């Protein structure tokens, strides 16, 4: 990817070299990750062999579906349900027995040399890959009638049952939120303040699970509002959508996840309006944010109205009541089109209406107010990334460490992409580092994470 310095960025560099405050949020570094010590395009799971579609079981891709800061320059990067962008079996939506996982990545930020295109250099290194599993038995697809073998991972043991990205891993007698379902399409990730737990949100259920960070063992399944779940499950997206008029839309579940800096609250963002909300003209662009109290599991819902984006991909906490929401279109690199709308909006849940019991116009009227914080397409344009080169799936957001250059201190926000496991078509796993100051985002409180 070619980078060029433009006038706005030059002004940022001038401010930095003069020891002044950063004038506005700006991209200060980029990094990519294309492999590990195990080889190019390989993660550190150690998984042998290939998946049903011939892709290596340890393929490193899609790791920007979710991104969480874990302290000391370390991030947890989350791939989704695995490599299914290349057609091979429409009966299961081209999904495979990819074991859900998170990758531990260090991102080293250092001041760049004088005259460099960007004020900092960033180096991303894969440190570990952790597979996600349950100590209790899970329901896998048998493969019967679907032209695939049984979906239980070969790595399963008597007390380790690994989750799977394959779409047929469910009990048809239960709703989509049954925690015994093996299928997981992980999309959001956050770390607990003690650094020991990882929270993951998903699209299939939607599910919200807590995992042991060290082992990948599931230690808690949160109960989400029943209105988010569907009752007629299928391995086929089209069949599932046609069969349900209540619940999440298939492949558009709990796409984003935030944890407040005090570590007491999670907020999950649905990607799209629920089936029942999307059918109402008043709420066809209104999706739900679900706030979960970690101690009790109690939930509240809030309404978010889309502006020009086709959905929400991420949410990250600014403090205990304000959040940045990633709203985007599907255009850009990987889609074969130009990106037009990828923006971060600031919202505040203080004083917002709990919409748990609301529908129709009342739900729409209760949508939270939002203000634009960052136009990602415009900012990438300032460093030479054209709309056609902007990754189509900007999905991972995480605040990172503070940095200093020539006496100028700033906070950082990491932005990552989901390349759908297609680096040749959708570009590499990339991280864009945005620098900002307290003046840009008043009230920002970093999450304290023990190490």
Distance between the termini: 35 Å
Number of domain units: 1
Q: Report the principal-axis shape.
A: globular
Low-confidence stretches: 1-21
Radius of gyration: 21 Å
Helix content: under 10%
Structural class: mainly beta
Helix tally? Answer: 6
Largest sheet: 5 strands, antiparallel
Query: What is the strand tally?
Result: 25
**Beta-strand content estimate:** 25-35%
Q: Which whole number gives the mean pLDDT?
A: 94
Describe the protein's topology:
Layout: H1 7-17, E1 26-33, E2 35-36, E3 39-40, E4 66-71, E5 74-78, E6 101-111, E7 120-131, E8 133-134, E9 161-162, E10 186-191, E11 197-202, E12 208-212, E13 218-221, H2 237-243, E14 254-259, E15 265-270, H3 275-278, E16 286-293, E17 299-305, E18 311-317, E19 322-328, E20 342-348, H4 360-365, E21 370-375, H5 376-381, E22 394-399, E23 403-405, E24 408-417, H6 423-426, E25 429-436
Antiparallel strand pairs: 1-25, 2-3, 4-5, 5-6, 6-7, 8-9, 10-11, 11-12, 12-13, 14-15, 15-16, 16-17, 18-19, 19-20, 20-21, 22-24, 23-24, 24-25
Describe this structure in words.
- The protein is mainly beta and 451 residues long.
- The chain has one domain (35-104, 124-376).
- 8% of the residues lie in helices and 34% in strands.
- Strand 16 and strand 17 (299-305) form a beta hairpin.
- The protein starts with 6 loop residues before the first helix and ends in a 15-residue tail after the last strand.
């Amino acid at each position: 990817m070619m980078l060029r310095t433009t006038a706005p960025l030059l002004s940022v560099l001038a401010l930095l070299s003069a020891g002044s405050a950063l004038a506005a949020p700006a991209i200060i570094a980029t990094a990519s990750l294309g492999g590990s010590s195990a080889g190019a395009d390989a993660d550190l799971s150690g998984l042998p062999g290939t998946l049903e579609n011939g892709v290596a079981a340890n393929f490193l891709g899609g790791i920007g579906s979710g991104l969480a800061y874990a302290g000391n320059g370390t991030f947890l990067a989350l791939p989704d349900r695995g490599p299914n962008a290349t057609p091979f079996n429409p009966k299961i939506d081209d999904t495979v027995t990819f074991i859900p996982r998170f990758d531990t990545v260090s991102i080293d930020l250092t001041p760049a040399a004088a005259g460099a295109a960007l004020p900092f250099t960033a180096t991303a290194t894969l440190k570990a890959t952790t597979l996600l599993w349950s100590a209790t038995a899970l329901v896998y697809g048998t493969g019967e009638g679907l032209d695939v073998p049984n979906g239980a991972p070969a790595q399963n043991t008597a007390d380790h049952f690994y989750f799977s990205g394959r779409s047929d891993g469910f009990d048809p007698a239960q709703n989509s939120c049954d925690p015994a379902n093996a299928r997981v399409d992980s999309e959001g990730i956050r770390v607990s303040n003690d650094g020991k737990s990882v929270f993951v949100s998903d699209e299939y259920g939607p599910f919200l699970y807590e995992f042991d960070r060290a082992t990948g063992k599931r230690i808690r399944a949160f109960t989400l509002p029943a209105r988010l779940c569907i009752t007629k499950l299928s391995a086929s997206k089209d069949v599932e959508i046609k069969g349900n008029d209540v619940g999440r839309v298939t492949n558009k579940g709990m796409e984003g996840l935030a944890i407040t800096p005090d570590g007491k609250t999670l907020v999950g963002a649905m990607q799209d309006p629920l089936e029942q909300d999307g059918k109402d003209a008043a709420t066809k662009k209104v999706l739900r944010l679900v706030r979960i109290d970690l101690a009790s599991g109690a939930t509240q819902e809030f309404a978010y109205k889309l502006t020009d984006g086709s959905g929400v991909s991420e949410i990250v906490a600014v403090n205990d009541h304000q959040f940045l929401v990633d709203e985007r279109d599907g255009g850009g690199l990987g889609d074969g089109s130009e990106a037009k709308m990828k923006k971060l909006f600031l919202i505040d849940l203080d004083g917002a209406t709990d919409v748990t019991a609301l529908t129709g116009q009342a739900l729409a009227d209760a949508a939270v107010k939002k203000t634009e914080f960052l136009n990602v397409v415009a900012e990438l344009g300032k460093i030479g990334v054209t709309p056609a080169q902007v990754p189509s799936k900007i999905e991972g957001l995480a605040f990172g460490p503070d940095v200093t250059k020539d006496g100028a201190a700033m906070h950082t926000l990491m932005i990552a992409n989901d390349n759908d496991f297609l680096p040749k078509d959708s570009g590499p796993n990339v991280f864009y580092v945005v620098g900002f100051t307290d003046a840009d985002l008043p009230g920002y409180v970093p999450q304290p994470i023990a190490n």
